[in-house]
Specification:
178 residues, mainly alpha, Helicase, Ruva Protein, domain 3, 69% helix
Length: 178
Amino acid sequence: MTEETSSPDLPPSGTAVDGRVAVVTDFAASDLFDRTFREGMELVEETAAYLDGEGRRDSKLLSRSSALAYAGESMRLTTRLMQIASWLLVQRAVREGDMAASAACEPRYRLAVRKVDGETPPPADLPIALVEYAVRAEKLYDRIHYLDRRMYVDATPPADAPNPVQSQLDRLTAAFRE
């Protein structure tokens, strides 16, 4: 038995969890994961280098109110990138066998829907590089959130949904009994 099906925390084999485990395992081994992981980690590194170097110099040239907005935007950007990196590292742990795919299915590893309501756009005088990193991070977050939903939410049929294969088998059995 595999770790995914023998865990006492999981329902018996053949359940929706098994379907998610297969999807997670397949994704972790895919080229799409490789590309997404590479893109995410490169964005984290580029942004960190910017914020520690050129971004620090840029922020010193801003007015007091713009510098405050810069600080808020850089914190939001850093938080978003940490969420992306965490999700990607969970998928890599599955790939490398350091984490069971069933553990990766736990809700604590899901990405939250990003809040858009109430967010005000950043001031126009923020450094363009910071704005560009923020846009790239949001686009990547949206793509990863889409993957997360497809892998962990949409891959799980509702518990009360009838099994279409079993329904057909039941109909065939009933037809041949007559």
